[in-house]
Each structure stands twice: as structure tokens, then as C-alpha cells.
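Bug #77: duplicate submission created two jobs. Keeping one. Sequence:
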Amino acid sequence: MKTDLILLHGALGSSETFSQIVPELEKYFRVHRINFSGHGGRNFEQAFGIPQFVAELNDYVSTKQLSHFSVLGYSMGGYVGLLYALENPGKVNRILTVGTKLHWTPEFAETQKKMLNPEKIMEKIPGYAAILDKNHQPQDWKILMNKTAGMMYDLGQNPLDLSLFQTLDCTVMIGLAEMDNLVTEEECLNLVSFLKKGGMSKIPDSKHPFEQVNAEALMQLIHSFFKEEN
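Kept job's structure:
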């Protein structure tokens, strides 16, 4: 019997992030994809940020009446998946994160915030602006970007205490793109040191953006990590 696998996208992304690998995943899993509020055309909620997205994942799980499932979370999606599992013991079987950054500092957050400037994006990277506009219609991607910048600022001001993950009861694999310029091996290993059932795996020939992750290597990691479930 196929098991349930929920795919969680990153900041400024959408459920379409995983389109290229979904056909292969559906051979082995019942695949679920959701858009967090403000992403992929979904309406904004009054709140915006990690706690809100964790609540939205919880709502989805409740609506679909999923009792046990696994998670593949890219970047912010991995952050959301880990916190959901921490707050809901016994619900998540396994979590594979890809490019997830949990070590935030005020300095790093400020750097990222400055990069998320809609006006500059439209001026210097109009092609990317057009993609964001298409992916998030009918929502305004510029509002989404400004809210995302604010979320990153908050992450820097209120860094997560990784020791909380000592109580996490599911198996976790931290996937790190070999050439990721946002997430370091040191911070990944630091997280792993707090996990009861955790490890780290490098994804070769890959960078942080999901479209620059080596799809073949990622699928090999997915198969090897989730094989005990199927």
C-alpha cells in the first residue's frame, strides 16, 4: 500500500515547485501538495509566517484525515514540516528536508531582507518578476515578497532553539545541496546532533534553488530514505 507524502514548498514558491518530480513520486506514494497562504494564488490570511503555515499544514492534515504521513520539505517547507512534527508527536513518520535553514541570525536575516525588494527585482531581474507574477496570480507577488522579507527579519530576531528537537520522535534526513550558498554543512550537522533519529546527506551538483537541485540525485535520496515505508 502506498503511504502519504506531503510536499511543502519554500518561500516565494508554490506547489508547482515539485511538478517535475511528482510523476515519479506518484509511482510510490499518495502525493499531497499544498500552497501556503499568499502563495500559488491562495488568499493571504491575517497572519503570515512559520506559525501560520504550520497551522495550515495542520488544517490540511485534519481535512484529509491523515493519521500518519511523511514530509518532503524544500527550504522553508522543511522548517514548517519539522515544527509541525515537533508539535504533533506520532503523526509524522519521516521528514526529508532540502535546503532548509534553521540557523538564523539578525545579520543574515537583514542581508536576505535587503535582497527581497520588489522594485529592484522588477528593475534588475524582470524575468524573475514575471515568473513570480505568473506563479502567484491573482495575489500580488510584491506583497508576498514584502511579507516574506518581514518573516525573515522575524526569524533573525527570534532564532529557533534547536535543542527543542531533542524530543522529536520521527526519523529525519537533512538534505544539503553541495553548493548551497545559504545553508552550511556546520549548521546542518548541529541540528542533526540534537535529533534522536537523524542524519545528513549531501546532494551532489546542486545549488540552493530547487530548480538547480540535481533531480536524479534527489530521487535517489528520496528512494533510499523512504524505502522502509514502501
